[in-house]
Predict the structure of Importin-5-like.
Amino acid sequence: MEKQIKEFEELLTQLLETNNFKRNEAEKIYTEFLQNNSIQCLEFLLKVLQESNSQQNRLLSAILFRQAISPTQIYWKNINRENQIQIQNQLLITFQIQPNNFLRKRVCDAISVLASTSYDSEKWDDLIQFIIKNVNDSNEQLQVDILYLIQQLSLQIPEMIKSIPNEIFEIFKQSFSEKNSLQIRFFATKAFNKYILILNKQKRESFTVFIPSILQLFFELTNQQKMDLIEEIIQELTDIVSILPQFYRQYYNSFCQIFFKISVSNEFPQDIYCSN
């Protein structure tokens, strides 16, 4: 197995070749391997993503894995259920052990695509339990990436994620209570904005309890002049008010105060809040 993984990783390296002939040959070999042995190919991609010393190969593995399990491809549907479960479990393990934050987000993308691909035929109950378990992890970045995953699932497969409003409510409750972490609360806000869009009006109403926490977060970020987040602050505020004006109506004045505070600050570059 170790020899096979090494040869497979060499193939991935050749896929990144600048030499057209070598790259084209590698693409033919990879495509043939994926078509003839989908299970092993997906397992090898995850193995490289878990263990490779090459960041380039890890990133390429994440991209190729996501492409292979896309709903537009036939490979996943042709894999038997037992092997599907094994690959799903390995993907979740890959998320947990991935030390690189950027690559972990690419694994999140793959998880959301796989959930979308398999949802109609097979439920992925372990994914929900995985989210609930890891959102309480002591690792702050892991919590952030779980919130990013919720955001992606809300976009990719709303039917699955909106079926567990009580669990998601508790996740937001936990995340917005993290007073010492602006990052967790910020990503909770981004996930929150996507999640409430997929709920019906009745279920959405119970989530209004988190709006004061969101406002508090935005005031803190503005007061601390978080330059790397200010553009996202403005975008989030715009999205919040414009997409669901009725949902946020009673907090209109508070949002106006934030916009005003941002616009009059001399510390922020003019081109951040002026249209091009």
Q: What stands out?
A: The mean pLDDT is 87. The two ends are 55 Å apart (CA to CA). DSSP finds 16 helices and no strands in the chain.
